[in-house]
Structures are given as structure tokens and as C-alpha cells.
Amino acid sequence: MKLNFETLIIFVQNVDQLKPFYVDILKLGIVEEIKSEWLLLEAGHCKIGLHKIGDQYLEAGAAAFKFDNNTKVVFEVEEDIHQIREYLLREKVLMKEIKTFDNYDYLLCDGEDPEGNVFQIKQRKK
Questions:
Q1: pTM: predicted TM-score of the whole model, two decimal places
Q2: How many whole angstroms separate alpha carbon 42 and alpha carbon 32?
Q3: Do the domain assignments include residue 36?
Q4: Cα–Cα–Cα angle for 5, 74, 32, nearest 5°?
Q5: 87 found inside a domain
Q6: Cα(first)–Cα(last) distance of the chain, in Å?
Q7: pLDDT tens digits, residue range 93-125?
Q8: Is residue 107 part of a domain?
Q9: CATH number of the domain bearing residue 31
Q10: Angstrom distance (rounded) from CA 113 to CA 14
């Protein structure tokens, strides 16, 4: 059996709030959309689906909250990671410092989308 990773689905509170982040800021292309319910994005060799959480999992009238999850979406970039980080900071994206490790070929930088979903950009060291 050979499995090919095709789509990662992230369950979110507000698809419409996240759309500008993923489309306008991260520049991911829209593959398909069901307004306020579903957004499928082209992300290189994989797709990312933003799927609205079912109402039964949300508390009626409760304020939006950030998720605490154990998943990190990683985007590899060819452009300078320092410039990308500065661009994301100007766009008011929560970004950590750039880091790396001994004997590791990449620079890494974590950030969060507006709902607190963690992503990482990584660039091969030159």
C-alpha cells in the first residue's frame, strides 16, 4: 500500500475570519469554497481545508477562543526567512524568533493564525 498525503483539514471557529489570513497574507490559492463553512486551499504538494466546527461543539454566545492543539502546519520557503518574518509581523501575525539547531539544515520560525493554530516557516540554510 502506498499512501499520498493530500489534504489536512483544520476545524475552525470562523472560516470567514481566517480566509484573509490564509489567502491574502500567506498567499494560498483557493481550490473550493462554501461560504462560512469550508475553504480548501492549495499549499504546494498538499491542500489545507478550513472546516467550520459544528455548532454542537461551540458554546452558544461564547466569545471566540484560541485553540490549544498539538498540530503544526509547516511551510518550506525559498525566500529569505527573515524578510518573510518581517512581512508577517507587519501584517500583525504573531511570530516567534527564528531558530535553528546544531547539525540541522534549516532555519525555523513559528507563528499563529488568528485562531491560534500554529504554523511554521522553514528555510534551508545557505
A1: 0.88
A2: 9
A3: yes
A4: 60
A5: yes
A6: 36
A7: 999 999 999 999 999 999 999 999 999 999 999
A8: yes
A9: 3.10.180.10
A10: 12
